[in-house]
Design goal:
about 625 residues; 27 helices; 5 strands; about 5% strand; globular
Length: about 625
């Protein structure tokens, strides 16, 4: 075990930023956190069920502990969602405590975003002053994809909180050399894996580099520290998978997203390798069955993050982040960083570079909100790099570099604004003017007299564009499978432009896949009347359709074939037995999805069997079959 002497601990402590917590810093931090909480929570119920797929699973988990543990879509426990269930657990517990509504599902997400903002501040504050630390928190909170997902019920907010918490604990462990702190960091990262699987491991290379290069103790001690952290990570991340794999298939729900009813396959394939290869994609942003004829072109490469789909989420400060990463690497040892600053800089730089390369070159199964993985490292790299330049502003060369970096953010903001025609002229002018003021202020920042005022102007110049996007985001209800920040793009090929038509029902199959069709009141009434008689009120596809019927009726609904109707569950024999035993009330027909010819053979066979053996009726435009007759 690594021993930490009192003198070594004291030395490390003295190397942390020694700027005391002044009154203005405390006021600034309180203002940052309060304003972040207000805007993350503002009008949250406008998002309704957000992603109904996950809301339905939260509803199921609140009603049944088996559904809770496995992450079942419905509390009949026929099939799970296609993710590990940690994020579902948080929402399910909230629903148990406060009832099923938008607030109980979405407030935990918003609070996770606020907590992560605070941790970002604390991480930077360990090695740098108050101004860089507060800027780091502000950058994170206002990053459009962070703002978007902190008001949504996807697993990203929990993954973000746990990965940033991992970074915080890892840095503390590197200071002290305590193996239990390394174990705690590994445990947190294992929990992050339980939230979003492989995506949580983006930071692993950064942790390895930082520990091996800068952690406390000898090289052997550092290797031992990594092994301890890796052991805790492996145990935590594998525990649920092992439990599921060793539970007999007949005693648990089918694992959604897998073809072989395997949590391990879900991890390695659908949520693993499949995300890194080129697979044809449907217009709704998901992997189709072979033979689909409406495919989106592969757009992988460095330019991906700067196109009209991804840039509005993350690219506002991407140029400065890249430039400052290069700066930190090139200057290296000449920066005279102390040990704490070296650890933090190494972690931030490698984390940012890894996330950027991965997102640029990963496969076609990518949503724009995956850029969430870049938000935290950007929020670390930018203030650290700017702090370096600010401390060396007595030289005109470094002042010029700083001005160029700040100006690059304004350039990128203008470029992002040009992706949409909905931005008003006055806001475009505001972005340019504040950016110009920030550049001029930095160029003439040699005088210490106006230092704090200059920093305030620079912060406004960096953040005004993202804040504008956040205002747009909060003003529009965010629902479905691929929420997006800011206004609709002017490129007809952009996802946001396509989703406008999809939300309006064109094409109908895409609407049902991405958002789900609005349930009919008369049908909901019929489903509620199955209570006490059938285990499931109905069966239908896709999962979003089933989710809305389940959420609105308060009765479990089977999503045939899982998320897209492509999983081989339930089998025709299973379904026929459930019907014969009187356990399913209705079958809701979805002609548009059948005509799409992408449902699993099992789902198609079940549909055909229902049509041949039960009488069809149409209720307010909805075609359904009463399976009780």
């Amino acid at each position: 075990m690594t021993l930490v002497t009192a003198s070594n601990a004291a030395k490390r402590a003295s190397e942390r930023s020694d700027e005391g917590s002044s009154r203005w810093e405390r006021v600034g931090l309180a203002s940052l956190l309060v304003s972040t909480a207000i805007f993350f929570l503002w009008g949250l119920d406008n998002n309704g069920w957000a992603n109904p797929y996950y809301s339905a699973a939260a509803q199921a988990g609140s009603k049944d502990w088996t559904a809770f543990f496995f992450g079942s879509f419905e509390w009949g426990n026929l099939i799970t969602v296609d993710k590990t269930p940690l994020s579902i657990w948080v929402m399910s517990l909230s629903v148990r405590l406060f009832g099923l509504n938008s607030w109980s599902i979405l407030v935990p997400q918003a609070l996770m975003g606020v907590a992560t903002t605070y941790l970002i501040y604390k991480i930077v504050r360990r090695g740098f002053g108050a101004a860089p630390s507060l800027l780091a928190g502000a950058i994170y909170a206002t990053t459009p994809v962070v703002f978007l997902m902190s008001r949504f019920n996807n697993p990203e907010p929990l993954m973000g909180l746990l990965t940033v918490g991992t970074a915080y604990l890892a840095l503390k462990a590197m200071d002290s050399g305590r193996l239990r702190t390394f174990a705690a960091a590994g445990l947190l990262l294992g929990l992050a894996f339980m939230a979003k699987q492989v995506q949580a491991f983006v930071m692993v290379p950064a942790l390895c580099v930082a520990v091996l290069m800068f952690s406390h103790g000898s090289l052997g001690s550092r290797v031992r520290q990594l092994f301890v952290a890796a052991g805790a990570l492996l145990v935590t991340s594998a525990a649920w998978l092992v439990a599921v794999e060793f539970t007999p298939a007949l005693q648990r729900p089918y694992i959604g997203g897998s073809m072989t009813n395997s949590a391990l396959e879900l991890t390695l394939d659908y949520n693993g390798l499949a995300r890194f290869i080129q697979i044809p994609i449907t217009a709704s942003g998901d992997r189709p069955r072979p033979g689909n004829d409406e495919l989106a072109p592969y757009n992988g490469g460095f330019s991906r993050m700067f196109d009209g789909n991804f840039a509005p989420e993350i690219a506002w400060l991407l140029f400065p982040a890249i430039a400052l990463t290069v700066l930190l690497v090139v200057l290296g040892r000449t920066l005279n960083f102390n040990a704490v600053q070296q650890e933090l800089a190494a972690l931030a730089v490698v984390w940012f570079a890894t996330a950027l390369v991965l997102l640029c070159y990963m496969g076609t199964m990518i949503h724009t909100y995956y850029t969430f993985s870049l938000a935290a490292p950007i929020a670390l790299v930018v203030p650290i790099g700017l702090s370096v330049l600010w401390q060396r502003r007595d030289r005109w060369v470094t002042r010029l570099i700083g001005a160029v970096v700040v100006g690059a953010s304004t350039y990128m903001a203008v470029r992002v604004l040009n992706y949409s025609d909905e931005w008003p002229l006055w806001f475009r002018a505001l972005v340019v003017l504040t950016g110009a003021a920030a550049v001029v202020g930095w160029l003439f920042s040699g005088s210490l007299k106006w230092g704090r005022a200059t920093l305030a102007v620079v912060a406004v110049g960096l953040l005004v564009g993202p804040i504008g996007a956040d205002v747009y985001t909060v003003s529009v209800p965010q629902k479905g499978t691929n929420p997006q920040s800011g206004p609709v793009a002017n490129d007809p090929r952009a996802i946001s432009r396509h989703l406008v038509g999809v939300k309006a029902g064109n094409p109908a199959w895409a609407t049902q896949t991405a958002f789900g069709a609005t349930p009919v009141v008369s049908v909901l009434k019929m489903l509620r009347q199955t209570a006490g008689e059938q285990d499931w009120a109905a069966a239908t596809y896709s999962a979003q359709n089933a989710a809305l019927y389940q959420l609105e009726s308060g009765r479990p609904v089977i999503p045939l074939g899982g998320w897209l109707g492509t999983d081989p569950s339930p089998t025709p024999d299973q379904f026929k037995k459930l019907v014969a035993d009187g356990r399913i009330g209705y079958f809701i027909w979805q002609q548009d999805l059948l005509e799409r010819n992408e449902l699993s053979p099992e789902t198609v066979e079940i549909s055909q069997w229902v049509k041949e053996n039960f009488k069809e009726q149409t209720i307010d435009g909805v075609r359904l079959f009463n399976l009780r007759n």
